[in-house]
Amino acid sequence: GGHRMLICPSVRHLTLADQQALAGYVAAGGILLYTGGDLLHGFGGEALFGVRTADFTLRAADVDSFTWQGTHYPLVREPGQLPVLAATTAAVLAAFPDGSPALTRHRYGQGVAYHLNAPFERQLNAPYRLQEEPWHRLYADIAAAEGLTDELLAGPTADSPEVEATVLGRGDERCALVINHAPRPVRTTLRHDGRSEPLDLGPKAVHLSTWTERRKAHA
C-alpha cells in the first residue's frame, strides 16, 4: 500500500495468493514491472500481463538482447529451453532478435503491468556485469514513462548505480548501509530524510550513515 510502482525481479516462484495480490495492486492503479525467472513456476498469467507462451527455443542468440528508449540491453541466457512469448492484449515495447516480445506493457484495471521475458536482474550477478551497460536505465525509463521520476527520489538513495543503500531501523533510529559494489572509487551523494550527504567511497567500500527519523504530525 502507498507504493506507486512495484518491481518483481527475476521471479522463479509465484503462488496463487501472490498472483492475486499483484493483480489487485495493478487493478487499483499500481504500476508493476515483472521480470521472469521461471516461466513454469513464476509466470504471472496472461490476464495480468497480456502475453502467453508461444514456443521454446534452444538458440540463446534468438533472445539474447533488446533495445528500448535508446538503450541496448545484452543478456546472458542460461543453457536449456528458453521461453518465447506472444502478445495477446499487451503492447510490445521491445523485441528480441527473433521478433518475439521482450518488454511489454498491459493496461489492467486502473494500472499497468510491464513484463520482461528474461531474468534481467539474475544475469547481472557475475563479475564486471554491472559495469558493462547502464542497466539501471530500464527502471528509470519505465518510471519516467509513467510520470514517476520525482517520486523515485524518496530516500535513502545514492545517485550512482554501483552504490547500494539499505536502511536498518529501530524505533526512530535509522542507519543507512551504503555499499560501493564497483571495483573502483566512486563519488556519490546519499539523500535521506531531506538531507544530502556527499560520499567518496573506495573500491568495494562500506559506509554507515545514521540519523533520527523525523516524526510526522498526523491530523
How many domains, in number, for the residues?
2
N to C succession of SSEs = EHEHHEEEEEEEHHEEEEEE
Strand content is 35-45%
- Helical content (DSSP H or I, runs of 4+): 10-25%
Give the biggest sheet: 5 strands, mixed
Q: How many β-strand runs?
A: 15
Number of helices: 5
Which superfamily, in CATH terms, is the homologous superfamily of the largest domain? Class I glutamine amidotransferase (GATase) domain
- What radius of gyration results from the CA coordinates? 19 Å
Annotated CATH topology of the largest domain: Rossmann fold
Give structural notes.
- It is a single chain.
- The protein is of the alpha+beta class.
- The protein folds into 2 domains: about 5-150, Class I glutamine amidotransferase (GATase) domain (Rossmann fold), CATH 3.40.50.880; about 155-210, Sandwich (Immunoglobulin-like).
- It contains 5 helices and 15 strands.
- It has helices spanning about 15-25, 40, 45-50, 130, 135-145, and strands at about 5-10, 30-35, 50-55, 65-70, 70-75, 80-85, 90-95, 100-110, 110-115, 155-160, 165-170, 175-180, 185-190, 195-200, 205-210.
- The strands form 5 sheets. The chain has a 5-stranded mixed sheet, with helices on both faces.
- A hairpin with a 2-residue loop joins strand 4 (about 65-70) and strand 5.
- The radius of gyration is 19 Å and the shape is globular.
- The two termini are about 20 Å apart.
- The model has no long low-confidence stretch (mean pLDDT about 90).
